[in-house]
Amino acid sequence: MMISISQWKMARVFLSSALATLLLIGPVLFAPTPGSSGEGAAWAGKLDGKRAGGGGGKKARQGGGGKKSRQQHSKSKVDRKPRASSARQGSMKKASAPRPQAKSRPQSKPQAKARPQSKPQAGQRASGPAKDQPFARKDAKKPQQKASGGKSRENLAAREQSQTKRKQDNRKATSDRQAKERTDRKSATSGRAAGTQDKKVQRQAQREEHNKQVKEGRQQYASNKEDIRSDRKKAAEELQQNKFDHQDEAREDWQDWGDDAREDRQRHHEKLADERNDLYEDMYDDRHYWGNDNYWDDDDDGNHHHNNNDDDDDDNGWLWGIGGAVVGGVAGYAIGAAVNEPPEAAVAVPVAGQQYQYYGGAFYEPAPSGTGYVTAPAPVGAQVEAPPIDCTIAFGPNDEGYCYFQGAFFIYDESADQYVVVEPPAGTSVTYLPPGYEEVTIADTKYMKLGGTYYRPYYEGDEVTYVVSEV
Amino acid sequence: MRILPGIVAGALLLTPLFLNAEETPPRVVDPKADRIMERTCEQLKSAPAFSVTADISYDDVLESGMTVQYQRYDEVVVDRPNHLRIDGDSDKGPRTILYDGKTVTVFDPDKNMYVEVPAPDTLDATLDKLDEHGVELPLEDLMSSEPCTWLHEDVWDGFYGGRHYLDGSFVHHLLFRAADADFQVWIQGGEVPVIRKVIIEYQDKAGAPRYEARLSDWNFRPTINAEEFTFTPAEGASRIEFRAANNTGEGDKP
Predict the structure, then answer these.
(1) Do A254 and B92 count as a contact with CB atoms less than 8 A apart?
(2) How far is it, in rounded angstroms, from Cα A86 to Cα A89?
(3) Which of A311, A462, A469 is the closest to B254 by Cβ?
(4) How many whole angstroms separate alpha carbon B27 and alpha carbon B150?
(5) What is the pLDDT of residues A243-288, one digit of tens each?
(6) Cβ B252–A456 below 8 Å, yes or no?
């Protein structure tokens, strides 16, 4: 709005000047020459058009007339002429705002505060002529023009004095106003500074408070994290402990179960062992009763371990060896082998009218030549107090146990408290045969014949055994 | 909702009772031990052929309670899927087992006797058949197509014992427990893991007899001659039969 008013004023001044110029140079320019009026008008139009084009930009150059063209033309005049003065004023007006604006550009708030500052200026312009310099000048010129219309010197002096006084008053008012404005600006500046300082302090306090809260939060988080970690660790330990406890309990239960089962088995084995020990003690006593237990020397025969040691698995026999005094070896014990005489400790064992000498499992009978003795197959029905110490246990088809030694089967007769030689029970397997057997093949089946007994070889597991076969 | 915790608690309390009866405890095996054993078994499983030597000792616990230890030596050659040869000697005498994919033979060179029976066409089935006849093979699990079945089906406890010294080097020492036995296994790691030693302690048997095997000369690229799996009887060798379990001798009349 202000711009429109000033433009209008400028345009009026410009038109007045132009009219005065035309009055002065018009007789020269508009001399009565042929065709000069039309060309002159055209030239003036071209001049205006150039001016307008020079200051108006593209739209002005294109536009041929009308309101827009006039506005553009008017604006260009305002821009050109008042530019030197109005620019200064404008810069002054604007300076109050731009200064702090320039200072406070980085901050938006002070700019907002500067705005109210312009309101009092507008109010000053509206309220009194002294507030607006152009109006003040216009008011001052009017009396001056009137004074030049023929006043007296006194009046002139009085007017000058009055004018001077007004000027002074105006200067003073202007000075006061400027001082007030400076004070206000200073105050505002200081206020803003103070406000800024307060804000800084406040922000600093807020920042410190925020930092404090953050720090406390972090500490709290760290504490919580430690607590959580501790809780997790504790829970994991408890879980692990529970797992171990459960595992231990399960293991203990299992071990208890195993122990019970083992105890049962041990009781069973102990019962069997007791029976065997009784048997063994009897045999042991009998052996000592019968004397020399080194009679059967181990000659380290290569077949010894195959034939004599009962390393049979679990079920097929017992090893009747006595620690440190195993009587093993069958060297020289071949049926029919001749000896001069039986061992001293041999006892007489009558069987079906035949007198045998018995010692350590071997039976001796008088040699057919009449001189000396020969080893004889164990006669069925012979009863002896001591079975061969190096016998192995062989089980018959009905699980009855025999003491097997060199092809002879001894069974304990409880009623007679004697070991009785019996016929080889059919179906009983033994792990070795004494020397002296012969191999026979009947119906494509191989047998070993020992005395009158046929043994059929079989594989039991990965071991060859000989099963007594009925004839 | 309150019933559920009660049921769970009751089940937990009753669990030992069930375990005490027949149930196997829950399997708790160190993953590292599992992993090493699995890897070793995988090596065996994936090998098309291998040979190994086994020095074995095993206990017989006498009825008197005394323990007798026997020795066995076996050279094993496995050519998957259906070839096997084991040459060995022991306190019970020498023994050779041959499987050529059609028949399996157990031969006693000392007695010059052998037993030969038709065999299934797979090594696993043949091992089962030999087992039915009571022929015990050295660590037959290692020869089967699933060497680690025992690890999953029988073992319920196990852990990694560390790297322990064995014959000049440090090897993995694994310990496992099954329902009826404890196992210790020494495994040489590396790109081709192999079992170096095994101890099996039969806790459920009287006297807890032990089976111990030291395995050496592992070769996963053995020179295979197909003829070495086929049995050719020596002169005078006698062919005999496996004895039936219910044989009473009455049918053996000559």
Answers:
(1) no
(2) 5
(3) A469
(4) 12
(5) 677 667 766 776 777 677 667 766 765 665 565 555 555 544 444 3
(6) yes
Q: Tokens standing for B102?
A: 């059609």
Residues A344-359, mean pLDDT to the nearest whole number:
90
Q: What is the CATH number of the domain that holds B76?
A: 2.50.20.10
Residue with more model confidence, B10 or B108: B108
Q: Is B65 close to A273, i.e. CB distance below 8 A?
A: yes
Give the gap in angstroms from C-alpha A310 to the nearest C-alpha of chain B. Answer: 9
> In this structure, is residue B107 part of a structural domain?
yes
The whole-angstrom separation of Cα A247 and Cα A142 is 119
Do A427 and B203 make contact, defined as CB atoms within 8 angstroms?
no
From A363's Cα to the closest Cα of chain B, the distance in A is 27
DSSP string of A132-162, one letter each residue: -HHHHHHHHHHHHHHHTTT--HHHHHHHHHH
Q: In the predicted model, is pLDDT for residue A25 greater than 60? A: no
The secondary element (H helix, E strand) that includes residue B104 is strand B103-108
Tell me, yes or no, whether B10 lies in a domain.
Answer: no
pLDDT (tens digit per residue) in A136-165: 333 334 444 444 455 566 777 777 787 777
Chain A residues lying within 8 Å of B240, measured CB to CB: 446, 456-459, 464
Tokens 């008008």 correspond to A41
Q: Which residue of B has its CA nearest to A467?
A: B249
A323 and B115 within 8 Å at the Cβ level: the answer is no
Of A425, A344, A432, A417, the closest CA to residue A386 belongs to A417
Does B1 fall in a domain?
A: no
- B71-123: per-residue pLDDT in tens? 999 999 999 999 999 999 998 889 999 999 999 999 999 999 999 999 999 99
Chain A: residue nearest B131 by CA? Answer: A461
pTM of the model: 0.53
Q: What share of chain B is helix, strand, coil (3-state, %, to 5)?
A: 25, 40, 35
